[in-house]
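look at this record:
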Amino acid sequence: MPQGLERAEGCWAWVVLLASLVTQGLTLGFPTCTGIFFTELQHEFQATNSETSWFPSILTAMLHAGGPLCSILVERFGCRVTVMLGGALASLGMVASSFCRTLSHLYLTAGFITGLGMCFSFQSSITVLGFYFSRHRALANALASVGVSLGITLWPLLSRYLLENLGWRGAFLIFGGVFLHCCVCGAIMRPVATSTAPATREGPPPPSNTSAHGCLAACGATIQRHLAFDILRYNAGYRVFTLGVVWMILGFPLPHVFLVPYAMWHGVDEHKAALLISIIGFSNIFLRPMAGLVAGRRDFASHRKYLFSLAVLLNGLTNLVCAVSADFRVLVVYCLVYSVSMSGIGALLFQVLMDIVPMDRFSSALGLFTVLESISILISPPLAGFLLDTTNNFSYVFYMSSFFLISAALFMGGSFCVLQKKERQGRPAEAEGAILEVASERGFMVEDSRGSEKQVYTEITYVTSV
């Protein structure tokens, strides 16, 4: 594939932004509608809450866990081909799932295959924005995340309509056709002429070393390139952010999975219960661009990580509302307040990551970040389902969500403050060391802050003939 067809910050960048917006709506917005099918699938397969929870859990986990493989595909083929491949895989998984006869088959098709396909499309669409935008990167990420809001708004409405008219099998078959639109969006994402764009290697790969040491070295280099363990080890900000988000994810997806069953369990009409998720999505359509504009201001550039921690804290506190009352009017207010914090998280999540790591390592850093995220995503819904089966009380699910979110926010906010304080304390010492080094090279006498003299070095000049 030829590279450098488009330039960054050009007119085509905004077309790519629109394609990324649609792709995120189709992929990242889809897991929020799985709660619509929760009760139907539970009755169809005669499964417990915990067993049924594995379906959205595997789907969302694969949406994030495929990051390293996506990084390899992006490096080898570019974002364009990877997005199109993801759309084809997601479509294949949903079509196959409509013929499933057991819940374990559904885990494989709609969970594993569709989730992996959505991962390829979603993460590649995020990566391509980093190549196309530099000055307006925060705004571009926020505008693209509006697609998630559109998806959260439209997917539940479409799911409820198809479930009533075609059943869950017919709905999944239609979803297979919808995911093919990712291929159209991928075709729009032409390669961009930047020095950090993923290079496409032409021709066969170089011959590999057949020795055991050579294979291990090659595997180590591949893992470091696509999983960025070196960044996790040496970049304290990336380490804090990754651990905080991994802990946060244990509670963050629970309302999307259990809000609709929770409302129906308390007697709310099915249509009104599905409308709650759409309210969250519709509110985010307007709130996410506003959050992006605020985050994109230069005044807030150094405070984005604190704004993210504040949004996580608000999200955790908001979930306590569901534990108080299940009245429909209370739940509507909950959804509106929840949307404010969710918009902040959605608009800042990837922007903070781009601020912490260099752009040429973003794809690999995102790969490791999403793999660790997927572990929490895989555990969270089944753990909540087990808690629900044990207690038969939905309130404990929202208590659990609040605990993880609030503790994660406090951890990230406090850790970032400590890191910033250490950084400020280290700057004067580095500056003094640089002055002493320059002075010693030139033979100057230097006094430190306590007035004691430093050692004098004589400047020697060598004259050589040419």
